[in-house]
Amino acid sequence: MAAGLSAAALPRLAQAQSAAQPPAAPRPAAKPNPYRVNEPVSIEVNARPLPSFDIRDRARVRFGALEYRSGLILTSSFSGFGGLSALRLDAKGERFIAVSDQGSWFTGRIVYRGREMAGLDDVEAAPLLGADGKPITATRGWYDSESLALDGSFAYVGLERVNQVLRYDFAKGFTRSRGEVVPLPPAARKLPLNKGLEALVFVPKVMAKGQALAGTLIAFSERGLDASGNLIAFLVGGKTPGQFSVRRTDSFDISDAVLLPSGDLLILERKFSWLGGVGIRIRRLALSDIAPGAVVDGPAIFNADLGNEIDNMEGIDAHVTDEGETVLTMISDDNFSLIQRNLLLQFTLVE
User: Where is this region: Disordered (predicted)?
Assistant: First the structure.
């Protein structure tokens, strides 16, 4: 298009001279992205255990309100494995579904040895499909799939780079189902590039029966800031749609969130600086505090830094064991980098 407009603006003589020139050599085809999944495929994932979480004190197991259970370092010869940005588990904490920031699903099963994770099995990768049935990375150039929320057979996936949310009906083919765009408030389109929609939580009608947020999708931005410098979030659907804020402190940004069976909301946050390095924390918010126009805040129940076995932690979920323990599972996004890791960590919430 740009070349055509430029040529139209030239004088006729220059156009004639251009016509006499040999055609330009065609540009080489773009190389395929090795990190994107174009069709469903079964893959093998290797797991190496992390027997302790604290690098400085290997015997330590208590970290704030969390107690370390087990961890895995995940690797695979499959080039598309990585970039894991969101994770959801079944009620037993075994079957999982995750999204990669390159527009891919990963599904499978966590294998346990007693209470500790031992590996992954039955792992499959598949592309996120658009309404046309084609991978969203191929037809729309959409990727940066950073967040995931479940509501029965429906799955919501947030795309940070374009600040869109897709809804999938897993009853129509599971990861082969087609995504439909969910209407969002106009303000969502104004979130900063690569700091937009980062976490999704769906409030089930059963859990929040009688509450204003029942049936609401909560969408958190990573670092979209309001006029007071707090983190912007949206209430989509439900009885009280609108916008609210999460108080931003100590330069932390939101990377994921999970709704506990108790009704409390946990937000996973991270920060990075060249001087201070990487840090993560978990804050507890009261779901009842969230409403249009509100600024919500809550205490930190967990903090970790590079003295612990962390990486770019981007996903969190929770399940309750048969013994009644609430287990938090976190996963990291390695950005397909040789110096980063795919970590899967589990803790018991003891507070």
Answer: 14-36
Q: How many CA atoms lie within 13 A of 46 on its CB side?
A: 6
Decide if 29 is inside a domain: no
Instruction: Record the tokens describing residue 203, joined without a space.
Output: 């409030």
Of 236, 240, 227, nearest in space to 295 by CA = 227
What is the per-residue DSSP string for 61-113?
-EETTEEEEEEEEEE-SSTT---EEEEEE-TTS-EEEEEETTTEEEEEEEEEE
| Residue 114 is assigned to a structural domain of this protein | yes
Q: Do residues 85 and 92 lie in contact, with contact meaning Cβ atoms separated by under 8 Å?
A: no
**Does 248 map to a domain?**
yes
Q: Which two tokens stand for residue 148?
A: 């995931």
Question: How many domains in the chain?
Answer: 1
Locate 123 and state its tokens: 């792992």
Q: Provide block-wise average pLDDT over 10 residues at a time, the chain (351 residues).
A: 35 39 50 88 98 97 98 97 97 98 97 97 98 91 92 96 95 97 95 93 80 94 97 96 97 97 94 86 96 98 96 97 97 95 98 74
CA distances from 235 to 185, 190, 221 (A): 9, 16, 12
CA distance 348 to 351: 9
Edge-to-edge order in the sheet of strand 145-151: 145-151, 154-159, 164-169, 180-181
Q: Provide the domain limits for residue 211.
A: 41-47+73-319+331-342
pTM of the model: 0.89
- Count the Cβ atoms, other than its own, within 10 Å of residue 214: 16
- Of 35, 36, 147, residue with least CA distance to 97: 147
What residues pair up with 156 in beta bridges, in sequence order?
Answer: 149, 167
